Each structure stands twice: as structure tokens, then as C-alpha cells.
Amino acid sequence: LQYVTLFESAGEIDIIIRDPKDMHILSCAENAKVGYIVTKDKDLLVLDKYKEIKIRTPEEFLVIFKGVFSE
Q1: What pTM does this model have?
Q2: Which end of the chain is more exposed for a tag (fewer CB within 10 A), N or C?
């Protein structure tokens, strides 16, 4: 069972964000083709989403996650 897969940054992203140091997070998430970024980082949370990647707090994600498995 594999728990971790490492991804490199895909390079530059096509959005301007409040904290340029967070660009690598968006780039890696895009490269990994993730559905969610789970974070408490306010500079990322204000985006709400990047392309098709939703950006949520851990608390919000747990509600979503529990809803998927309670059906």
C-alpha cells in the first residue's frame, strides 16, 4: 500500500497570488492532478480554487470526506 507519492513543481503557473512562495504548492497540485488542497494558509484559501483544484480548510474537507463515505 503506497501512502506518499512525490511530485515536482510543474513550473510557472498562470495566476497571480498574494504570496509568491505558495506558487510551488499550486504547481505541484496541478502536476499531481489532485482534487483538493487542504490548508490553513489564508493566502491560498482566498483563492477558493485554482483551475479545477478546490482549496479547503481541514475542517471543511472533513465534512466533505465524511459525506462521501456516509452515503
Answers
A1: 0.82
A2: N
